Amino acid sequence: MTKPVPATHNAYTAHINPAGASPILTMDQVWAALEQKVQHAEWFVAGALKSTDVLSVETDDQGHRVTTREVVFVEDNRRIREVCTEYPKLKVEFKQPCGGLVCNIVSQGPGGPEDLCMTYTFQYLHPGASDEEIKELTEKRAKMSKMAVEGTIEAIRKMVQDGRIK
């Protein structure tokens, strides 16, 4: 039996409309923003991503929009190709050829239509990494997960405030 490739797995969830948040975001607004995030990732994670180049947009056999894109990282100008599949008003999956998988999930809580949550899940493969390296990477990615979710919610709220999203 072969040994599995070392990997990190993280998830983080935040309320989209916590007490005192203004404006209150709707599911339609959040979904419109996630569609924009596929096309313009740097609008949502500007500190990490420099640009997004859309290479193709297709529709799969279930009617989901599938976008192939390359994102460029600020830190080292590294380019990562991702295949992004949109599942309307549920999630966007970002699959990387190296085995990475990121999901941006929107869900409704028990408090009604304004009780929305955003969850990001992250899976990254780290061939050859030691157990100690995986532990360090997991801790680092846990912090990044929190920043990514909260930063995206903040970006969506600003886009609604300035009229880019109705």
Write the layout of secondary structure elements.
Elements: E1 7-15, H1 27-39, E2 49-59, E3 65-73, E4 79-87, E5 91-95, E6 101-108, E7 116-125, H2 131-161
Antiparallel strand pairs: 1-7, 2-3, 3-4, 4-5, 5-6, 6-7
Describe the structure.
The protein has 166 residues and is an alpha+beta fold. The protein has two helices and seven strands, in the order βαββββββα. It has one domain: START domain (Alpha-D-Glucose-1,6-Bisphosphate, Chain A, domain 4), CATH 3.30.530.20. It has a seven-stranded antiparallel sheet, with helices on one face. It is globular, with a radius of gyration of 17 Å. The relative contact order is 0.24.
Quick synopsis:
The chain is α+β, with helices and mostly antiparallel strands and 166 residues long. 27% of the residues lie in helices and 37% in strands.
Provide the CATH topology: Alpha-D-Glucose-1,6-Bisphosphate, Chain A, domain 4
Instruction: Determine and state the CATH class.
Output: Alpha Beta
- Domain count, please report it: 1
Separate helix tally: 2
Strand order of the largest sheet: 1-7-6-5-4-3-2
**How does CATH name the architecture?**
2-Layer Sandwich
Shape: globular
What order do the helices and strands follow?
EHEEEEEEH
Biggest sheet overview: 7 strands, antiparallel
Strand content: 35-45%
Instruction: Report Rg.
Output: 17 Å
Q: Identify the quaternary structure here.
A: single chain
Work out the number of β strands. 7
